Amino acid sequence: MDPVTTAIVAAVTAGVTDIGKKAFGDAYQGLKSLIKSKFGQDNKLSKAITAVEDNPESKGCQLVLAETVEHEKADQDHELIHIAAQLIQALTETEQGRQAVSKFQIAAKGAQIGVVGDNTKVEGGIHFEGSQK
Questions:
Q1: 5 φ, ψ to 5°?
Q2: CA gap 101, 77 in Å, rounded
Q3: Which of 16, 24, 36, 105 is the S-S candidate for 90 at Cβ 3.0 to 4.6 Å?
């Protein structure tokens, strides 16, 4: 999942739309405002975000958001990526936020990763860089 989609979905599932989530709420609102300023007030991306806000656990809404981010090339906009990274950082400063981010982003530098379980599915591929000898 790209950083923009990850930031939005993780923030929403962490409860950013709930009253009192000031820690990352400002960063989330900043990302949404930037999207509106770049794509217009009534844009497809904002509508996809609203759909995720209305139904945060819906994989379908999350997928539509990811596809819309890609279609609108928001995942290639350096300013949006920077603000999304700030939102992800703000999320990781709370327990609820860390749990939400960990659903969509795995950082495992220098680690061995194994997947065990019935009906395990990896989507989006696994990417390896460099090599160790």
A1: -65, -45
A2: 21
A3: 24
Reported residue count of the chain is 133
Helix axes 44-54, 22-39, angle to 10 degrees: 150
Give me 123's structure tokens: 């989507």
Tokens representing residue 17 in the block: 């739309």
Greatest CA separation found in the chain?
Answer: 52
For the chain, the structural domain boundaries read 3-102
Predicted TM-score (pTM) of the model is 0.73
* pLDDT by residue, tens only, the chain of 133 residues: 788 998 899 888 888 766 556 667 888 999 999 999 999 989 999 999 999 999 998 999 999 999 999 999 999 999 999 999 999 888 888 888 788 887 766 555 565 555 555 556 666 665 555 544 4
Question: Which two three-digit tokens encode residue 79?
Answer: 């300013």
Number of H helices, E strands in the chain: 6, 0
Contacts with 6 (C-beta within 8 Å, 6 or more apart), sequence order? 84, 88, 101, 104, 105
Quickly tell me which residue has 């990811």 as its tokens.
66
Dihedrals φ, ψ of 55, to 5°? -145, 75
